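Lay summary. Proteins are chains of building blocks that fold into shapes, and those shapes determine what they do. In this project we predict the shape from the chain. Here is one chain we studied, written as its sequence of building blocks.
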Amino acid sequence: MFFKIISNFPITFLVIAFTVFLNMNIRRTASKKKSSLSELESKANTTRKKDLGNLHYITLTEKNLPLIETNDEILLSCMEKLTSLSDKKIVNFTGYTNTELKLEFGAANLPLLSEYDTNFTELCRTLNKYGCRLLELGYTAEAREILEYAIDIESDISTTYKALADIYVSFGETAGIDRLISCAEKLNSLSKPVIINALNSLKDSSVGR
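And here is the predicted shape, written in a compact code that computers can read:
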């Protein structure tokens, strides 16, 4: 028994030594990363305010937001929200961190930039809700127009892509799904792979019909 313990000792020692070494390296890497992030945040907080005139603002008009006469409460609520957003500044900052925004445009501009991005999120959600409800009620042409506009401004809501893809399939326009996949590939969003996988699955199933 004694000799068995002795013979296993080198292996046990090596396992313990490796574990200790690995933990030390993980802690060292984490410490360096934390220090680097801290320095980056410090730099971001001291970045001077920059002009926001050249931002890619989204402008809402009656042309890209067709409004219909209806008594449907959901549609009325969506149209009211869209009308309200048309008076606000809207910019897509999906995928950007606060630190990145401060580095790019200055720390003092962060509240405004956050407001613009919040407006964009509200716009995408409203367009999705509006388009899907129009589709439910049989306003296919209007729904298609709304959903396509949402894609054009780079919405990353998967339901928007799915609803529009279903419209394309119903009209036998499977090439439209390829366009949606191409648009999704340009997204700077965590939803990107989910959207692409869903579209590819829909494309594969539509081919077999």
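What the prediction tells us: Residues 2-45 form the longest helix (44 residues).
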